[in-house]
Automatic annotation (TrEMBL):
It comes from Melipona bicolor. One of its GO terms (molecular function) is methylenetetrahydrofolate dehydrogenase (NADP+) activity. This is methenyltetrahydrofolate cyclohydrolase. GO terms for cellular component: mitochondrion. The lineage of its organism: Eukaryota, Metazoa, Ecdysozoa, Arthropoda, Hexapoda. Residues 31-146 form the Tetrahydrofolate dehydrogenase/cyclohydrolase catalytic domain. Keywords: Hydrolase, Multifunctional enzyme, One-carbon metabolism, Oxidoreductase.
């Protein structure tokens, strides 16, 4: 089966990320995520073609979208467009907003058992009547391209090989490809969600000598209940700030210096 570990950073496409150095250096490094995403996609296109040239099956990704949320529609279309570019066969299953969770789980179970399907992606957020945790755990770990299954998150926490959540892996790629020094440096991650903030923090702080090749940083996680004065104090001491809180303008210029 095709391994999804190196495919995930394609979700960087079309985005910008900003990572700030400490007040000791008194400068900011602005990173163009779109440029790096294009670079990664070209590399992955060559990887997939090499895989196929070795008489192996073209990888197949299936996305499931529930309802008609405009943002979800855009996200899925971008992912499928990237998959098309790098040579991954793909299609999207559309379920109605009022579909039951059981309907969704049946689709997932069918895809889990389909040997022609290598990866499954359920677009979040789900309708309110569905349980996100139960749905994410229904996907078998080796087809869980989002890396949200407990087995994959556990592998990340133990510095073992597994599928890493896309945003966390994207942050790592941004840092590495921008030649930002991380060994022994201080990082602040603003946001603690199990799908974004926590995986980012785990990748930043883990030992680079282990299987996942992490970044050896001293990492602090802040969140909505971190007092503003404490947040400002921590960000001023940080060599690297990654904001994943979904609140525009949360980090001001004064908090970075």
């Amino acid at each position: 089966m095709f391994h999804w570990k190196k495919i995930l950073p394609i979700t960087l496409h079309g985005s910008l990320r900003q990572l700030y150095t400490s007040r000791l250096l008194q400068k900011a490094v602005i990173i163009n995520g779109k440029e790096i995403a294009n670079e990664i996609q070209n590399e992955l296109r060559a990887t997939v073609q090499s895989w196929i040239n070795n008489d192996k099956k073209r990888p197949k990704l299936v996305a499931i979208k529930i309802g008609n949320d405009p943002a979800s529609k855009v996200y899925v279309e971008r992912k499928m467009k990237a998959a098309n570019f790098i040579g991954i066969e793909n299609y999207t299953i559309h379920l109605e907003e009022n579909s039951s969770q059981q309907d969704l789980l049946k689709e997932i179970d069918y895809l889990n058992k389909d040997e022609n399907v290598d990866g499954i992606l359920v677009q979040l957020p789900l309708p309110k009547h569905m349980n996100e945790h139960e749905v994410c755990q229904a996907i078998v770990p080796n087809k869980d391209v989002d890396g949200f299954h407990l087995q994959n998150l556990g592998s990340l926490a133990s510095n073992s090989n597994g599928i890493i959540p896309a945003t966390a892996l994207a942050v790592k790629e941004l840092i590495i490809r921008s030649n930002i020094e991380t060994f022994g440096k201080n990082a602040v991650v603003v946001g603690r969600s199990k799908h974004v903030g926590l995986p980012i923090a785990l990748l930043l702080h883990a030992d680079s000598r282990d299987e996942i090749g992490a970044l050896d940083m001293t990492t602090t996680i802040c969140h909505r209940h971190t007092p503003h004065t404490e947040l400002e104090k921590l960000t001023k001491l940080a060599d690297l700030i990654v904001v994943a809180a979904g609140i525009p303008g949360l980090i001001t210029k004064e908090m970075e210096m």
